[in-house]
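To whoever is on call:

I kicked off a structure prediction for a single chain this morning and the downstream step that reads the tokens threw a length-mismatch warning. I double-checked the sequence; it's 465 residues and nothing unusual in it as far as I can see. Pasting both halves so you can look.
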Amino acid sequence: MPTQASADERLSVVDRDGLPTGERNLAMVSLAIGVGMASLDTAIANTALPAIANQLHTTPAASVWIINVYQLAMVATLLPFAALGEIIGYRRVSIAGLALFTLASLACACSWSLSSLVVARLFQGVGASAIMGVNVAMVRSIFPASLQGRGFGLNSLVVAVAFAIGPTTASLILSAWSWPWLFAINVPLGVFAVFLGQKVLPITHRSTHRIDSLTALYNVGAFSMLVLLFGDAAHLTDVKTLLLELIVTVIFFVLLLRRQTGHQAPMLPVDLFRHPVFFLSVITSICTFATQSLAFVSLPFYFETVLGRSPVETGFLMTPWAVLVAVMAPIAGRLSDHYSPGVLGGIGLVILSVGMWSLLGIPAHPAVIDIVWRMAICGIGFGFFQTPNLKAMMGAAPLARAGSASGVVGTSRLIGQASGAALVALCFSLFADKATHYALGMGAVFAAVASVASFSRLLVGKNSV
């Protein structure tokens, strides 16, 4: 089959059931580069923050904005970009996001001050949001229904591994070069992904409704304030400030829900949350990514401050989690084409919870193997959960609402990660030397709750899986 096709031919190919094998593989390469860079840059700056603060002559507290502004931009704009993708096409949003992310990465590498870097990271976060907002919907268009478990497995693999190897990657780069290279490496990859995407990403159906700019504004305000509230609560900000932020958050969400009432495709997809399997899958996702964040934010402090490991050693100690995710995600993807996501996800999350509990039992003077096998158990459980859960969420949404479902996938992941990081900060504020212990314990509980939510999908019927 020829690889070059007219727009109509490519549209008909997607409508028939995915792309041919050759085009499918190339399309996944373009998507994988984009989602890999966006996910990696969520985690990579954490490790580099001290070096960046030192070279830019700024305080550690001020430098945290390098992280916060990226997360805020992503959380606040994911759903608007997902809605926009349903209207103008997922392909256009994905390629535009790649282009913006690449340009913003170049701006980050060329930054000369904290202010310039924060502004560049803001635009980088917006570009990443566009990529992530439509990414899963693109995967659903690229793969035929019989192979979508494999497609989601590949996508889950890229996201999980990129997030997990962020500390190691940053440590290796910083050991050889200065921090601007953390962002500069995105530029050639991004340029390649943009040009490849223009040639191979499929054209999909477009909805006839219009996007409401005021609804998008309310969405940005609601989710920005929610993340800000999480962060301030974790740092024990005074009650008056927290109460004010809570009131503003509630007001924005009320305005958002009232504004989109009666809309055939609401930006905050309350229509999809009426599907029990979709709702339970969202709960499962938020709790599981909170577990991952609780581990990945707290453990580096334990390894470096308590065990005296170097940043590079810490990165490698975190690697078994990523390696086992890489092994398990494709396997879980294939199994999810034949077995219930509720069962597969539930089993994986039981394993993850056991792994988190085992981390609480690390000896006072552990050998490397004492840490490695515990991290490996967590990686097995996490890798076994993600793809079935992703398939359950997308399977519960009608094809015309794939963009909105894709946006919720990204939003639930980011909210879970943000809440997990906030809880780690709260643990350090309250428990000091025992902070990692309490964070891991909470992670084990979150994984157990997620397992219950996953198994509960078996009780609501087969209507969406």
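Update from on-call: the warning came from a stale cache, not from the record. Cleared it. Sanity check on the structure: The CA atoms of residues 120 and 274 lie 38 Å apart.
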